[in-house]
Structures are given as C-alpha cells and as structure tokens.
Amino acid sequence: LKASILAIGSELLTPQRADTNALFLTRRLLEVGVAVALRQTVADDMQLLAAAFRHALATTDLVIATGGLGPTEDDLTREAAAAALGRGLTRDAAYLDALRERFARYGRVMAPVNEKQADLIDGAVLIKNPRGTAPAQSVESGGKLLVLLPGPPGEMEPLFDAQVLPLVRQRAQGAVLKTRVLRIASMGESEVEQLVAPIYKAFENPRTTILGGAGQVELHLVAEAADEAEADARIEALARPIREALAGRVYSEDGKDLAQVVAALLKERRLTIAVAESCTGGQLSARLTDVPGSSAYFERGVITYSNAAKADLLGVPGELIAEKGAVSEEVARVMAGAAMQSARAAIGVGITGIAGPDGGTPEKPVGLVYLALAGAAGDRVRRAHFPGDRDRVRQQAVQAALEMVRRGLLKLAPL
Ligand code: ATP
User: pTM for this one?
Assistant: First the structure.
C-alpha cells in the first residue's frame, strides 16, 4: 500500500510556517506499515490543487490531504478533490443544521460563507471534527482511498488517530513496517557509507538510508514483514554485520541520543561529571542537563571563555596560555583536570577551540578543537578539526566530547 500526503495552504510555502502535518502523518502511517511515497505542498490555487490530487490518485493507493477546509474563498480543497475525482459536491443538510447549532451555542449567527463547510464530495463519508467547524471526509474511488483532513494540527491529529487510522489499518491488512535507527557519533557520512554500503547493498529488505547531521550519522533500517517478530529478525540480520563493521561506533539503536546514552552510563556507574567549556559556551552542559534526572550525575559546568576566566576559575597558568596558546592540548588537559578537582567529581571534561568565523591562523585554523577527559573514564585528549560554520563546529565539538566520555567509560580505544 503506497500513500501520498498533500499539505494544502499557501502559508506552508512561506518561510514562516512549516508543514508539520506531513511529518505526523508519515510517522503514524509507518507505524501501521504504510510507506509514504509522495508528498506535495500546494498553494491555494484551484488548478494546482486539482492537478496535485490527480497525480496523487494516479500514482498512490491512499491519498491524505490536510488544510483548505475552512470557510474562506481560498479554502479550495473540497472543490479541487471533487474535480480531480470527476464528482460533484452536495451540501449535507444534517451537517449544516449541526453547524448552525454549534454557532448558536456560542451565541453567534453563522455567516453564509460557513455553509460551504457542509459540502460533501458525492459518495464521501463525513467524519466529525469535534474540535473545529470543518469536518473531514473520506471517499473511495477505483480502489483508492482519499481523505480530506482539517489543517490545524490540534484538530487534525486527534481526528486522524481516532477516526482515520482504523480505516488505514484495515487496508494495510496487518503488514508491518519497522524502522531501527543506528546512531554513530563523530564520524563523517562518507566514512560510514564506505564501511557499510557493501553490507547493506546486499539486502533488499530491510532498505537502508543514511542521514548525516552535525557530528552524527544515522542509518535507518526499514524492514517490511508479515509481523513484528519477522521484521525484528530481518533488521537484526543486517544490523549485526553493520555493528561489527563499525566496531563500537554505534552508540544507540533505540532512539536515545548521545547525551542520554552518556547519562545512562554515568548513572549506572554512579559517577559524577564536571565540565569546563570555552568555544562551546555551555552547550555541553546544556546537552548533559537536557536529560531528566541529570542532577544524579551532573555536578557543574563552567564557561571559561576568556584567558582570565581560565586562570581565575580553573587555575590555568598564564604562562601555559602564553606559551602554548589558549587553544592547545595542554590547556584542554588542565581545564578537564581542574573542573574535576574543583567539583570533586569523578570525571572532568575540557573543551577549547576556535569556532570561527574569525580567529583562525595557519597553525590553528577555524574548527580546531582540543577535547580532554580526566578521571574515572581515563585521561585522554583529542585534537579535532571540524568542518563547517560556527554552529556546526560547536555542535560537532559537543558530540565529540560526549563520544569521548562514552568511549572512555566503555574502555573503547580513543579516537
Ligand atoms: P479551519 O477551518 O480551521 O480554517 P482548514 O482545514 O481550512 O481549517 P487551514 O485554513 O488550511 O485549515 O489551516 C489552518 C491553520 O492550520 C494554518 O494557519 C496552520 O497554522 C495550520 N496548518 C495547516 N496546514 C498545516 C500543515 N500541513 N502543517 C502544520 N500546520 C498546518
């Protein structure tokens, strides 16, 4: 069963508003084993809308549209869908009464423009929308199912879950589509690709997609099967050789992000951590404290941005900074050790680097970051040179620091 999604509304084609309905629907459909093969975002334009509906109906089995069911002139979804199906629209008298009553209940008289919200495509089934005035509708045509849903997520989501998902599940006939996400930190997309492509290319089911982010790569393994157990077995058959090829680099397979994984390790071992950050400006502390229950392991974080701060708060000797530079292996080490000691924590982390865009030199270019680890997870230091703009450099530095802690705790070789 192939599905398509139409997000309708000119506002969705501006930089101010994102189409989040498609993401919600894609997630829900995947959960019941239906893959989304086509997504369209369409302006409030009769011709474009009718063409989009025609295309979706010609190429997919299940078409779900959201938005454009309101009372105003630019709400054209009903008309466009009817035109694409070659059907008429009929005003539903019972719903019209219900709509009038709804307005009356709030002490208002319904404006004539609202009447068109009771228009139903011929042959369609009306689906009540308890949270709004625009009802949804579903219609079958040539073995395909078309569903029109209201645009506001607060109306669409509960309506979809309660009244549309059961219909879809019935059509999907118990097929299962399962996804496992393998996450890898501090490794480039092409590096991962090179190691694992020969493995996953030999598998047609699961299918694998690779997604790169700042300091993180994800492998999405999607299996199609008759039931959950078969899907799990298929995924594991591919995940196992991938895991082996990546030798300890896969840090999560259950949706946890790197900070959550590090948090769980620290908690399990009853270890506390303190961090000293320069170029990341507190982002490592933020990531570590984003995790609920972080007071169990996070002792403190200091942001020592200036040389004076490094001297005052961490006791980094002025001569060391003068001799080696604030961005140096030696300073990173002192930062990690001092953070740990002053906090009486089990583990200390130090980060110092050049996030850019200014401040780079040929010897110390933008993107150069020194990361140091001290204490119970081992004493380590890493010199990394991260590509990208200021934001990306900082994000990669935080990921690398978390990965350093994880690898230290698990006694995996330093990077
Ligand atoms: P209503 O009767 O409430 O107007 P409608 O079906 O006409 O319902 P729209 O007018 O198209 O819905 O959209 C109403 C609001 O819903 C938009 O301003 C926007 O905030 C939100 N919305 C619509 N479509 C989407 C979408 N695809 N993703 C996220 N939000 C959306």
Answer: 0.72
